[in-house]
Design brief:
elongated, 6-stranded mixed beta sheet, 5-stranded mixed beta sheet, alpha/beta, 246 residues, 9 helices
């Protein structure tokens, strides 16, 4: 299947126009007219992900986080990104990124997190944020629930016995959107990164905050993306199993 045809499907899932203007999304490396019979989906490009793609004969890697996020004036192997890019090109593997366009899409990054957390009655808010409901529990119990579903460390801000029912979620660095979550009627706001003082301010205003780690809040979306592509494409779709500590 031509990579350009796969790109049409990716753009249908997360239209490019949904990306923030500062972002770097779409086909970032490779030949759109090349053919492949396998695709690897990953949170971001790494040596391990590229190893998987080469071993599987996958001509396309689809990531959430882009490379070349900051402009480069030379492509050499003097730094980690340069070495990875040069190797990517040598292997003939194409790379496509769907970042803030996937954040802002529905279903997208935040819908995947809602599904992983078991939230019900999910509604879409601005900037891709979602609001859902959970069976009423204390913040202490809810933090344990989130830790069990997302894995890794969860840092809660707020009174441990605060009652939680309405939950707003935003994957990645969502600290600036805590006021939006509170305005939407959320009792708790789950995001990857918030910042200490922003979280304290939100808690003082009555909104519990759970800071769960950038990767942990976006990783469920890679499972969802791989499942969506498996349904839509007549090629092998792999969800990367490469291990990396974030």
């Amino acid at each position: 299947m031509r990579i350009s045809d796969i790109i049409e499907t990716l753009a249908d899932i997360a239209p490019i126009e949904l990306a923030e203007e500062w972002d770097n999304v779409g086909l970032l490396a490779g030949d759109r007219e090349a053919e492949t019979d396998a695709v690897v989906c990953a949170l971001e490009l790494s040596e391990g992900v590229l190893d998987e793609a080469v071993a599987a004969g996958a001509g396309l890697i689809v990531t959430h986080h882009p490379i070349l996020f900051r402009g480069r004036k030379r492509l050499t192997e003097d730094d980690a990104e340069g070495r990875l890019l040069c190797r990517l090109i040598r292997t003939g593997t194409a790379l496509y990124a769907m970042h803030t366009n996937f954040d802002n899409a529905h279903p997208g990054v935040n819908d995947a997190m809602c599904e992983r957390l078991g939230l019900s009655e999910v509604t879409a808010l601005e900037h891709g944020m979602c609001l859902g409901r959970i069976g009423e529990m204390t913040l202490d119990a809810f933090a344990a629930h989130v830790r069990g579903r997302l894995g890794g460390a969860v840092r809660p801000y707020g009174e441990p016995d605060r009652r939680i029912r309405n939950v707003a979620v935003m994957g990645g660095a969502g600290g600036d959107y805590a006021p939006m979550a509170r305005a939407a009627g959320a009792d708790a706001f789950i995001t990857g990164e918030c910042g200490y003082h922003k979280a304290l301010d939100a808690a003082a205003e009555g909104l519990a905050v759970l800071e769960c780690g950038h990767a942990a809040t976006e990783d469920p979306a890679i499972d969802m993306l791989a499942a969506m592509l498996k349904e839509r494409l007549p090629v092998k779709v792999m969800r990367s199993k490469a291990k990396m500590y974030y």
